[in-house]
Amino acid sequence: MALRQLVITKKIQTLRKQLDALKSKDAEFEQRKAELKTREAELEAAINEVNDETPEEDKVAVDESVEAFEADQKALDNELKEHEDNKKKLEDEIKQLQDELDELNSRAATPVSNFTPKYENRERNNEEGGMRMKRGFFAGMNRSEIEAFIIREDVKEFLTRVREFKGEKRAVTGAELTIPEVMLDLLRDNLYRYSKLITKIRLKIVGGKARQNIMGAVPEGIWTEAVGKLNDLSFGLNQVEVDGYKVGGYIAIPNPTLDDSDLNLANEIMDMLGQAIGLAVDKAILYGTGTKMPLGIATRLAQIVEPDDWGANAPAWTNLSTTNLLKFDPTDMTPQEFFAELLLYLGVAKPNYSTGGTFWAMNRKTKMKLLSKAVTFNAAGALVAGVNNTMPIEGGDIVELPFIPDNDIVGGFGELYLLAERAGASLASSEHVKFIEDQTVFKGTARYDGMPVFGEGFVIVNINNTAPTTSITFPQDTANQ
Fold first, then answer.
1. Within 347-401, where are the H helices?
2. Among 164, 179, 206, which residue terminates a domain?
3. Within 13 Å of residue 101, how many CA atoms lie on the same side as its CB?
4. What are the pLDDT digits (tens) for 62-111?
């Protein structure tokens, strides 16, 4: 009984932390609502000023501003509804668990079985149950404690399910074997929570095609006499467009599996769908093909000829395949020489049009290689490393992503990558899709498009003297072939 109470207590603590994290965003939503209220008042004033003498382009600008405002208002309403629903869901789960815990606590005063596991008090003498096990799952228990553990109802149910489901196949492999909490906690792939790069780039929420206006290069002023005529300076205006492609997938689970699960399997599947979308977004930002998905940084840098779909109003296309795809040989270099050489190559990324910092994406093996180069001794004689999660000296954030090939470092000024969000991650479930099959379908979708507005702001450096990888494999869209 004590173990079950401990499990429930820990669950409640975890859920309360999640609830507190959600509540901490309440102020952010209030601020966004206030900003929209201010915009609404400004738009009302602008609309009232429109008359027959107003230039046509000003009228169009007002109409576009109204459309943008309505899209932002709708997006905020949807986000706020989802936010409140999530809070309500957590509150209900906490209440349900608290009720169960209170009931268990009330029963604790009266023993209900002679088989309460004695391992709850492992300080008892071995004489009560004989010699204790020295290794394995039952380490520290004596024979009587092991027997009491095996006859627990939840353990017996688990062992029974293992035998019954042997040889069967379902949509989610192993979904039936939801192990009782008294044996093991659930192991999760926590690598993606969700996109790691989406906070490093320029994310814009849009209601239609997005147009990013770009002022041309700053011209140099021309010196003249104090009373001389001023020279005409030339400014150019460019523009890139992004659309919105769908990313996501679905999973079908037999309803009996959901009913019989010892854990909240539905929530776990929803979480994994969210992570799947985050993984796809990160992968597309770096290596996206630009066909039915965003154009990735590596893909742009690898272009050797101007693509056919390069926008007519986009900035002049430049071949970056020789200037921004770099490699060097670290053999025989001291750590100081290595980082000095690396910083020279990272410095190829140009900060023009950017007011933010840099990020550098790599896999863990590459990060550990950098860490090994930065190891030194401090004044106390202890080993320290100057990498942590930032690039030494340069200072940009290091983002660890496993799909990046070994020894490749991809990054630059994230603000120069435009990611347009038509619809953020949406997770839902339905029993209607496969009603006659008695299955519940869980789906996750999102709509994005994006591209490096200026490829010159990014670079890929290989620190093992091999050509940087510029394309990786994406899962096939078999559903629409």
1. 364-374
2. 164
3. 16
4. 888 888 888 888 888 888 888 888 888 888 888 888 888 777 776 654 44
Cα separation, 379 vs 392, in Å, equals: 19
Dist CA 154 CA 172 (whole Å): 22
Question: How crowded is residue 254: how many other Cβ atoms within 10 Å of its Cβ?
Answer: 19
Domain count of the fold of the chain = 2
CB 238 within 8 A of CB 155: no
- Asked if residues 236 and 211 have their Cβ atoms less than 8 Å apart, the reply is no
List phi, psi (to 5°) of 427: -115, 130
Burial class (CB in 10 A: 0-12, 13-18, 19+), 187: exposed
Residue 298 inside a domain? The answer is: yes
d(C-alpha 48, C-alpha 40), whole Å = 12
- Length of the chain in residues, anyone? 481
Nearest of 440, 444, 445 to residue 252 by alpha carbon: 440
401 and 252 part of one domain: yes
* 232 within some domain: no
Q: Structural domain of residue 135, as residue ranges?
A: 2-164
Between these two residues, 31 and 375, which has the higher pLDDT value? 31
Residue 367 lies in a domain: yes
Distance in angstroms (rounded) separating the CA atoms of residues 250 and 443? 4
Written as six digits, the tokens of 406 are 């070994």
Which one of 131, 164, 197 terminates a domain?
164
- Domain at 404, CATH number: 3.30.2320.10
pTM of the shown model: 0.56
The sign of the dihedral angle between the CA atoms of 8, 184, 190, 252 is negative
